[in-house]
From TrEMBL:
Protein keywords: Dioxygenase, Lyase, Oxidoreductase
Residues of the VOC domain: 16-137
Top-rank taxon: Bacteria
Keyword Lyase annotated: yes
Name this polypeptide is given: Catechol 2,3-dioxygenase-like lactoylglutathione lyase family enzyme
Organism: Actinocorallia herbida
CDD domains in alphabetical order: GLOD5 (cd07253)
Length: 143
């Protein structure tokens, strides 16, 4: 099996996600959504590109048909589905902020299992239709 050395030990160790790339119809619009609705901060990007950051991670926005190589095999706006963990914000506060921006909650709150255990989540979509799960781990939300 790839990544396994002698004695079946794993040689590759991943510590965290640095960044992800979302293919979008309008990078400026997407950056504004993630900044203004989800509270992310502007992040350094290549000239003419847009990016936002949260915690130690970053999202780069590539406009459909204008992404740099290499890129995903079939980059498509609205093709992503990912979970973001809230910090210092309850799901109720998140729902209120989403409503203030006219962003509907598609589902939730619902209980899910995340990388660290049980969590409660809300689901919404960004301007391209990407599915975003906002979550808090058990015991971290006072709603």
């Amino acid at each position: 099996m790839a990544g396994r050395g002698a004695g079946n030990e794993v040689r590759v160790r991943i510590s965290r996600l640095d960044h992800l790339v979302l293919t979008v119809a309008d990078a400026e619009r997407s950056a504004a959504f993630y900044r203004d609705v989800l509270g992310m901060r502007e992040a350094p990007a290549e000239p003419g590109r847009h990016a936002v950051a949260f915690g130690p991670s970053k999202i780069n926005f590539h406009e459909h048909g204008h992404g740099s190589a290499p890129h995903a095999q079939a980059p498509t706006p609205g093709g992503a589905d990912f979970c973001l963990v809230l910090e210092g914000t309850t799901l109720g506060e998140a729902r209120t902020e989403l409503a203030a921006h006219g962003v509907p909650v598609e589902e939730g709150p619902v209980t899910r299992v995340g990388a660290l255990g049980s969590m409660t989540s809300l689901y919404l979509r960004d301007p391209d239709g990407n599915l975003i799960e906002l979550a808090v781990y058990a015991g971290e939300d006072d709603d």
